[in-house]
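Appendix C reproduces, verbatim, an entry submitted by the partner laboratory led by Prof. M.T., so that reviewers can inspect both the input and the predicted structure.
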Amino acid sequence: MSIRKTLFALAIVSTLTFTFAFAQHTSTKRKQPSQVKRKTAPATPTRSRRVGGATETADAQTGAPKPATVTSSATAEPSPINSPSPSESPAPAPAAAETKPTEKSPAKTATTASETRSQAVSDPITALRAQIDAAATPQDRIRLQLKLAEELSGNGKKTEAAAELRAITGSDVFDPQGLYNTGNALARLGDTEGAVNAYRKAIEQRKGGYSRALNNLGVVLLRVGRWDEAEDAFLSALRVENFHYAEASYNLGRLYATRGQMDLAVREWRRAVTVDPDHAAAAQSLARSGNEGRITVEQARGVLKNTSASTAAAERQPAKSSSSRASEKPLVLDPTSFGYLQRARNASERGNKTEAIDNYQRVIARQDGYFGPANLELSYVLIGLKRNNEALPRLLEVVNREGSRYPIGYYHIARIYEGKGELKLAEDAFTQAVAAYGTKNSQFLLDLSRVREKQGNFKGALEAMEQYVALVKKEGQDITWSEERVIALRQKAGTPLR
């Protein structure tokens, strides 16, 4: 009985256990589909990359791009940035080697760049000034200042442009090319003195070896009638280039022609064409030069004697008026004398003054004590050596014999007299130079005004100065300082201010 009860109890326990297990198994089966679904739902890992101003997110497995997240404010209204849903996992961080430094305020940077570009278009002058302040090197600053000056000049602000350019010249920056370009810009503005200073500084920085700056310096000086300085500049440019610089030769020829030294002018134009056969201006000048003032080398001794005699007789006649210069016959030399003359000129060009003097004197001696070009050129060499007392009588002989052919002699005589303190004689000589050259040389009027003022002749000084101002104003040159001088002379002369 006891065994039967025990077996019955075990049967009941087994039945309950089986029922409970079956119920639990059924419950598990019902829950399994939703659990499987949850296992396939987690967010797929993603990677991100920058595209323009937006962050483009792509699927890590397929690479398909997802909607971009805009981070730039370059557009009028930035697109809203959507926060990831709780079911999305953040993109994995990039590897350390690919990490870029965080940019500071990208939106602000883009806006500033946009504003700068807009500003540059609307106000280039303001933009250039900002660039000048931020220039990395002094040379960069000069380049930008040149651009600014050009912009100012183009807008009619020439005074401001000249001030900007003069500031470049006044700086201590080593930039020969920048100074050369500054000189060119000042010359175009008519600021002669500013251009001269810029060119001289560029030349100095290259220790004299700047042929283009020397040539342009000569051009500016020639334009305002400072002929002696212009000649020195052109010759210096030619020496730098071993006398193979066509433009400098052409300009030196222009100077000689203006001074009435046609033989030397033709010599330079020929040299220019030899160096550069395509130099049209030099070729045209040669074609127009004719025979006036040119030296002919006579080969036949009999003809030479007759020609020399007639030439000498003509040279001993009183000075002719400038209107009769075209009728003057060409000068004639025998081959030996001509050879001495050319050696003298070559030596003078290269700075060998002693050799030049010796050869000029040989020419003069072979021509019975006088040959116009040789006497005049010898006097220049003597002046260059500060031997003015020797130069003066030779110049006086030239103007007494051929003042109409070589009126430049009056100018040099005036300078010597002024240096000696003989101001009345200097005034007379400057007056003759002004009469001979008229509007070709405004500098002579300035010189005449100066010596008259030194004598206390303020009205005469004012008259010459007013003529000078009118002439340079017509030529488009800067007259600021000269107008100030006119005001000062009017005060001294007691003339009412206009």
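Confidence is low (pLDDT under 50) at residues 28-111, 302-327. Additional entries are available on request from the coordinating office.
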